[in-house]
TrEMBL record:
Keywords: Signal. This is DUF4347 domain-containing protein. InterPro entries: DUF4347. It comes from Flagellimonas aurea. It holds the Pfam family DUF4347. Residues 1-26 form the signal peptide. Residues 31-151 form the DUF4347 domain.
């Protein structure tokens, strides 16, 4: 009996190890960046599909460094989903506001060269509704080469979001939760 028990334990361990290794080596096309101050961060993280890479922001990294981290850790990424508090003219990451001027200074186009077309989905109900917010989204796009999409028709992030604004036409919309 003892020998059978040990074999079962070893087999269970090997199965768990191989599943963990397979999951960690699997490349994902979706990366979620979530700010530490994002409302309902815990609920968002709990509802993410298992194959989505997650980056929680840190005070030591700015937005450009966080995007570079997403690319470095996920070379096959196609969609970056940014969940951060925003105003009409800025995205706030760890208490630091990023407006079009800040993005233009911190983002260097050579840092974001990739062979994959990438879309950044900015989960905000305010940026795409006004000229300053649209300028910010366009600046992110021009400094990274990525398409940038956001929602102009929502009133609250609890609504079902439709990415009805994008700098360039969207070839496909990405719904993280389907």
């Amino acid at each position: 009996m003892k020998n059978i028990f040990n074999q079962k334990v070893v087999l269970s361990f090997l199965l768990l190890f191989s599943l963990t290794l397979t999951t960690s080596l699997a490349q994902t096309e979706d990366v979620v960046i979530v700010d530490s101050d994002f409302s309902n961060k815990g609920g968002l993280i709990a509802s993410l599909p298992i194959n989505v890479a997650l980056i929680e922001t840190k005070m030591s990294n700015n937005l450009a460094q966080t995007f570079k981290q997403a690319l470095a850790e996920n070379p096959n990424v196609k969609n970056i989903h940014l969940f951060a508090p925003s105003t009409d003219a800025s995205i706030n990451l760890d208490g630091q506001p990023y407006n079009a001027e800040t993005i233009a200074k911190q983002f260097h186009p050579t840092d974001f060269q990739t062979h994959n077309p990438i879309t950044v989905f900015v989960y905000s109900c305010s940026l795409a509704k006004n000229a300053l917010g649209i300028s910010l989204l366009e600046t992110i796009s021009s400094r990274t080469g990525f398409n940038v999409a956001s929602c102009a028709s929502c009133d609250d992030l609890k609504d079902e979001l439709m990415f009805d604004y994008s700098v360039r036409p969207l070839t496909a919309t990405s719904n993280l939760f389907e």
